[in-house]
Amino acid sequence: xxxxxxxxxxxxxxxxxxxxxxxxxxxxxxxxxxxxxxxxxxxxxxxxxxxxxxxxxxxxxxxxxxxxxxxxxxxxxxxxxxxxxxxxxxxxxxxxxxxxxxxxxxxxxxxxxxxxxxxxxxxxxxxxxxxxxxxxxxxxxxxxxxxxxxxxxxxxxxxxxxxxxxxxxxxxxxxxxxxxxxxxxxxxxxxxxxxxxxxxxxxxxxxxxxxxxxxxxxxxxxxxxxxxxxxxxxxxxxxxxxxxxxxxxxxxxxxxxxxxxxxxxxxx
Length: 268
Known about the structure:
Elements: E1 3-9, H1 13-26, E2 32-38, H2 45-52, E3 57-60, H3 66-75, E4 82-86, E5 90-91, H4 96-105, E6 110-118, E7 124-125, E8 128-129, H5 136-141, H6 151-157, E9 168-169, E10 172-173, E11 177-181, H7 182-188, H8 200-210, E12 214-225, H9 236-239, H10 243-258
Parallel strand pairs: 1-2, 1-4, 2-3, 6-12
Antiparallel strand pairs: 4-11, 5-12, 6-7, 6-11, 8-10, 9-12
């Protein structure tokens, strides 16, 4: 088995069905499997998938265990040489899964990689970042981020000053679409389930680097992402009363507590 694709559903049955349909519609020219995990959505998604695509492996969890634990449930069942985490709001384009696998084949030191993500209108969606400093969440989530002196630091964190058409190593990438080498996961481990939602991708990428595996942005591979940042939809004062904002803050606190002995990683 060359590629295992893990898709996590939580009350997004429509998107999940479309994502799976898209994968089979482009008919990837490689041996692959699809593993659908449902985080106790109660929307009948896995039942529909199992009836429509008998070859899909469906896993239904008894409760909503979050992003990391939900994806891990699928990764544990995966048999592929490469394991792909794919959000339901991703649309797979023809030939791109093959290109992503080929990228991994030609970069043997790469343990984890992500493609170039674009918005539905074709515009670039920035998905690469530097490892964050402790102050960064405060400035990104408050009006302090509008201070002119902070703009260069925020641009640097979001890696806005480099050519997005060029593949390169990066500190970390969004977890919406990540392909990992099975061999690397055996050394690094699965995602840290202490993170219910958010920052698990930052932590996972950091652990790959810490174990000597590279994290790459694969610019030659393009997928469409219907992205919606729930934690950034509201003004700051309103967001303070949003549950999703506090989930995000809690994840940042866990991350910095975990890595408090050093916020930098020596990379090759």
